[in-house]
Amino acid sequence: MRKRLICSLAVFAALSFCLFLVIGEVQAGTLKFYANGEELIAEGFLAPKLTKDGWTLTFTHAFVALSDITAYQTDPPYDAQSEKPISAKKKVALDGVHVVDLAMGAEDDPPVFVGEVANAPAGHYNAISWKMARSKTGPLAGYSMFLVGTAEKDGKTVSFQIRTAEESTYRCGEFVGDERKGFLTRGGEADLEMTLHFDHVFGRADKAPDDPLNLEAVGFAPFADSGKIHEIKLRGMHIGHAGEGHCAVEWH
Amino acid sequence: MAPVILQSPRAVHAHGVVAGYAKRTGIEITAGYDTGRPMSGGRVSVFAPDNPATPWLTATLDENGRFRFVPDPAVQGTWTVQVRQEGHGAMIHIPTGDFAIEEQQTGPASFGLLQRIVAAACVVWGSIGTALYFSRRKKAG
Predict the structure, then answer these.
(1) Is the pTM for the entire model greater than 0.80?
(2) What is the ipTM of this complex?
(3) Residue of chain A whose alpha carbon sits nearest to that of B112
């Protein structure tokens, strides 16, 4: 009888300790992911921030399909300039392909909710990667981005539809902005942002013509024919950011 | 090698004002664009390792895109400096080792996964050994 009691206590103690170790590893919170086209999508390209060729743009829709969304705890912090794969102590993935309409972001709060992961390990998520991928269903079926809106210049108004089927993966370090993001405490919440800078596509009239941003941007003139859906090549235009921080891009 | 910042070469006395100097090891940040243009007037935020979500110091880059600061040597860990201007920005991470600070870290120990596995194995082995010991003693008795 005593032997059984001792054996049971020993096994119980061992299992309890193992459970304690496992729980100690988990220390979970909720990590939320947002996509942000910023004011240039939520409000539009309005004076003085017109396109580099002087068009005013407003967006009815700005669909993007995002997949392979992954947040990382990196040490040392990931340097996007290295363009290497992200090496992480811990990482959390948001499964699935997520189609979001960046134009649905409020003017005073442009980020659009993409999804969340519960039970994410606590810590500082200081890197993020995602893929702009072709959607298989919905309004973006077969494409990774679709912009719909209205453009105006010199009294001329045109409707535009611009889309791409290109796929690319962005690897970014820590969010750079008004606040630092990604600090997840046990039982708490934290958010991360996938930021898309559309001035890298259309340019900015309030910047010098030889500004690197304007040199890489195509402007709006190639899409001013409102009679058709335009295909755009994004390769060479770095629209993916983490806030104001640049990301490494891999084209597929 | 971190630059040495000399705040003043000697003590000065004038109309009751007392000024002195302190020799400290500091950090100089240089920020610019990949075109070579310095980030003149860019915003700088410095975050201390013990409170990484709130700026420890905010400042502005000079005309050459430079900024100097002296971290608190009592705060160990990685200091982070954020520079931003016109929608572009970057983060710089500076371990305390780069300040040539030699104090030992005194924070609580943090156990890695391998250490946890070894600890768990020891406890399991010890528990089983204890059970077998008592079991054997009873048989012998």
Answers:
(1) no
(2) 0.81
(3) A25
